[in-house]
Structures are given as structure tokens and as C-alpha cells.
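Form 12-C: Joint structure prediction
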Amino acid sequence: EVQLVESGGGLVQPGRSLRVSCAASGFTLDDYAIHWVRQPPGKGLEWVSGISWKSGPIGYADSVKGRFTISRDNAKNSLYLQMNNLRTDDTAFYYCAKERDYDRAFDYWGQGILVTVSS
Amino acid sequence: EIVMTQSPVSLSVSPGERATLSCRASQSVGSNLAWYQQKPGQAPRLLIYGASTRATGIPARVSGSGSGMEFTLTISSLQSEDSAVYYCQHYKNWPYTFGQGTKVAIK
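Section 2 - Result
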């Protein structure tokens, strides 16, 4: 069974850093493109970052470019999002999501993890 | 960046009636379009990919159509469990942007 489980969220002060993780099971992470999507409480979805299969191209939303870094550890079958210089508008639920085979829609999502940026 | 615009923002439909949701892209995305359903406290769930193909386990009363810039999600014979927010998303190229969502309520 395919599962994605996020961890590492919490409360952090503006300007500080935080790393959230996404542990995958039921499939090999490196065989698929994987993404981070966020959702401020009560608001809509925003694509944050994606990493192609076999550690190919990486992309970022303009709102996080230069501050966030996506990476994966194949040995741990895990995805990471390193978030630096956090701002209050980065407060959101962060979801990891897997692309389908032969199509790039997101067929599996984690349950989400809340990151709150506040002083 | 491709901008996705959904309409209406919300709609209220009686059980058994049809709900029609629209999504417009600011430029052509071909058939690289997905629809997701999100219920409170849950992650989004894939309903439709490739603009018109139902994902695994999605009932036949849910259908998608369109290509290029105009897309439609139709839920025929609405049921209570269809109460949710629905998002369209293009995946033609990065950034994969989402629409702002349409909230469907049951009368």
C-alpha cells in the first residue's frame, strides 16, 4: 500500500529555519516525481516545489525560490523540504504528493503537517 | 505562470441534482488537467486526470471534460458525501498551479 507520512512541523519564529520530512512506503520514491503543496488554514492549495524522478530537474514557486530547498534521501525513501528565512505567510499545512505513472496528476498525498511561523 | 480560474466560488445543490463546476486556464494546458476533492481536515483526493479520466475508485457519476483552456467537472445525481471543496490543477509545466476552489454544499 502506498503511503506518504509528513513530519517535522511546528511553531517557528520569523526568520528561522525548519525542515519537514515525508516518509514514503509501498513504492520507491526515486522512481517518481514528488512534490510539496501547501495550504494556509482555511485557504486554497499552492504548489511549492517538485523534484523529478531519478533526482532530475527541480522546480520552486516564486514565493519560496531562494529560501526553500527540496531534496530526497533514496536510502531512507524520504523527501525533505528545508525552509529558511521563514515568513509569517509561510504558515500552512504542508503536503507531499506523488505523481502518477505516465501522467503528472497527484495520485497519493500525505496527511499534511502544520507549520506555523509566528513570534 | 499559468493562472487557473474556477467558477462559481460556491454552489448549493439539492440531493440527486447535477453540479457543474468550471475551470479556465490563462493559456492552453492541453489535457494536462486534474480535479481534486477536499473535505474538511483531509488531504486532497484525485478525482480526474488527463481532463477526463476518472481516478481509481471514483464513481461514474463524476465526469470531466474539456481541453485547452476550458474544463468542466460534472457530478450528476449529487449525494451528501459530495459536499466538499473541488480544485482544478494544471500540470503542463512548472509551476503546477491550482484554481482557488469551488465549494459544493448540499441543500
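Section 3 - Comments
Chain B touches chain A through 23 residues (CB under 8 Å). Residues 33 and 90 of chain B are 4 Å apart (CA to CA).
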